[in-house]
Amino acid sequence: MKAIRFILKIMLLPVIIALTVIRLFAEFLAGISAVIFRSIAGFFLLTALLCYGFGLESSGECLQMVLAGFLFYLLPCTVEMVIAGIIFIEECIRSFT
Q: Is the model's pLDDT at 4 over the cut of 90?
């Protein structure tokens, strides 16, 4: 049984290394994109509030801008869920071997 575990550990080592590199690269991109997309979401929200406050746009159009900003805010959150899935797969492989 120990020999089989050792062979599996050797066979799955490149998979674990690849998953780790992919996870680190995804975390790096998620960090950068979070700053960018959340700044865009803030601009959308600020624009919607100011347009509604000064009466430049109707409430429906301002609501559309707020929803667009919310979608920009959610994009980094979905990437974080993908990263959590990669970590889960990586831990399952490590606990298996």
A: no
Is residue 30 within 8 A of residue 83, CB to CB? The reply is yes
Strands (E), 27-69: none
Phi-psi region at 58: left, alpha or beta (left = phi > 0; alpha = psi -120 to 50): beta
What is the total residue count of the chain?
97
Inter-residue long-range contacts of 9-13, CB under 8 Å, 24+ positions, other chains counted: 9/97, 12/93, 12/96, 12/97
Task: Answer yes or no: are the C-beta atoms of 62 and 52 closer than 8 Å.
Answer: yes
**pLDDT at position 22:** 93
Distance CA 43, CA 94 (A): 43
Residue 88 CA to residue 75 CA, distance in Å, equals: 20
- Amino acid type, 30: A
Determine the Cα–Cα distance for residues 71 and 79; give it in Å rounded to an integer: 13
